[in-house]
Amino acid sequence: MSRDIYTLTSHRNDRVFIHIMSGHFVSANNHINYYIGTSDIKHNHNVSVDAAMLLSEYYNANGTHVDTVLCLYETQTLGAYLAHELARPNMFSPNPNQTVYVIGSEYDAAGNLIFRDNLKKMIKDKTVVILISCITSGKTVERAMESVEYYGGTTVGVSSAFSAVDSIRGVHVNSIFTLEDIPHYRAYDMHSCPYCAQGMPVEAISNSYGYTLL
Hints:
Elements: E1 6-9, E2 17-26, E3 31-37, H1 39-43, H2 45-61, E4 68-71, H3 76-87, E5 101-103, E6 106-107, E7 113-114, H4 117-120, E8 127-135, H5 139-150, E9 154-163, E10 167-168, E11 171-177, E12 187-188, H6 194-197, E13 204-207, E14 210-213
Parallel strand pairs: 2-13, 4-5, 4-8, 8-9, 9-11
Antiparallel strand pairs: 1-2, 2-3, 3-12, 6-7, 10-11, 13-14
Helix pairs in contact: 2-3
């Protein structure tokens, strides 16, 4: 397996970056030809702060009121900085005077996103932004949106470090990196993967936590 890892910086802020690696990878719902590394955006304080500022611009510019940031797959640090940016005064909202909750994700045995009784109040009747590091097909986010709706909340935004889709269930995806930055990125159904058809072995299992070589 080629271990060449490339750094891609944001055209809006060169202190925000991701790592990309080409190969044959299996994700939760697809086979993909690039692994997108977002560890620094999730875990590096300096990068995470600047990434949150980039993500907040969309909601501030559009006057989107956000009550809760729902963090999927280890994005709580980024979510806290995003909440901070959304709650503080800015030129679009000089007196926000609001509390923005930041909550993580928990799943039951069937893989459904659930909220304990002490967290339900942070979803019910709240406007929610779903935060995830990487979106390939949008299926994971779609399931999260269904859970938010089930618990009485409304998803008003989806944010990610990288996204291969522009919208999910009619909600705009606000991402730092898109297919314009990685134009050769492809995702394939497991039954129609050209790499599998060519007999190329899967090199790693990847998800929003990272990757594991096989």
